[in-house]
């Protein structure tokens, strides 16, 4: 497997020379400065790629080439947005970058309520607290329908949190929920989020699936011609939130997506953290089932609570049998001769990284620990075979 590292380019406080010391050989990045829906210029891609190569890396995966919200909503004449997406793919392929990770989550990427939850032996992690999310939806967004999305325990805790929360607490919660947006983007305030959510009124799971299928029909044939491998990232968390449907959360969803346009160019980013937050998902079984269509792997672990909460565990701790998952992808590599890029996903903030101000979930030391642990698992599995 190709050891890679997510780098936010000019927005990242971690430098390429520092990443080189982790032992990773591949870089996963994007042109976060380009607004959604606009063409990624070839000259800008070439410049970024040159910077990466000069530091001794290969640009192995784009994460992400974003899908515009109008495409997700199926809104208006989308021909220009589809054409721009295809042109961006062509410009990437012309510079030798041929694996593209993207997601189809409405409005937000990954969502957490706490960016610095304490870890037992020191350090902090990302956490999704169901009761805080319920409080946000019910008492800050004033969305009464949200009651149906949470357990009675979470709702009771949400009411208590709301009664005790200060203005600073509410501000911090909003900031945490908005922090999953990558790059240099304006975050929503409460009024802005309410307005954005209205754009999805009447769009349920079936409608969103239809819009997604249309997107695939528009871009996958071009990806085939260009030698591009598209790989969708699962929903994070893998559940409906804010009244928005999520359609990449379990094996049935993935079956639908891969069958919507049945092509090797239409593939999966297998994220053990996102899929692992769904108690119904059997990750080793899913890894074996979908390995042949997996073009990129995110490896991280989560620890789940009965009320729907979860937090980032250390890479070899938590609820997911990480060696079993990795073994499925090593088997796929041996059978096909292809090398699948992996990256250590969200790490704990540890030691000198605490307070450094790196992107939430993307510190240096915590991910370095994760990469080292994963490297050991891969070495052990490779030796034992």
Break the fold down into its secondary structure elements and pairings:
Layout: E1 2-6, H1 16-20, E2 26-29, H2 42-54, E3 58-63, H3 69-73, H4 79-94, E4 99-102, E5 114-118, E6 124-128, H5 130-140, H6 152-164, H7 167-178, H8 190-198, H9 205-226, E7 229-232, H10 251-260, E8 266-271, H11 272-276, H12 283-290, E9 294-299, E10 301-304, E11 310-313, H13 322-336, E12 341-344, H14 364-384
Parallel strand pairs: 1-2, 1-12, 2-3, 3-4, 4-7, 7-8, 8-9, 9-12
Antiparallel strand pairs: 5-6, 6-11, 10-11
Helix pairs in contact: 4-9, 5-6, 12-13, 13-14
Question: How would you briefly describe this protein structure?
Answer:
With 385 residues, the chain is α/β, with parallel strands linked by helices.
Task: Provide a descriptive summary of the structure in words.
The chain has 385 residues and is α/β, with parallel strands linked by helices. It has 2 domains: 2-109 and 202-384, TIM Barrel, CATH 3.20.20; 114-196, no CATH class. 43% of the residues lie in helices and 15% in strands. It contains 14 helices and 12 strands. The protein has helices spanning 16-20, 42-54, 69-73, 79-94, 130-140, 152-164, 167-178, 190-198, 205-226, 251-260, 272-276, 283-290, 322-336, 364-384; strands at 2-6, 26-29, 58-63, 99-102, 114-118, 124-128, 229-232, 266-271, 294-299, 301-304, 310-313, 341-344. Strands 1-2-3-4-7-8-9-12 form an 8-stranded parallel β-barrel, surrounded by 4 helices. A 4-stranded antiparallel β-sheet has the order 5-6-11-10. β2 (26-29), α2 and β3 form a beta-alpha-beta unit. α5 (130-140) packs across α6 and α13 (322-336) packs across α14 (364-384). The mean pLDDT is 95.
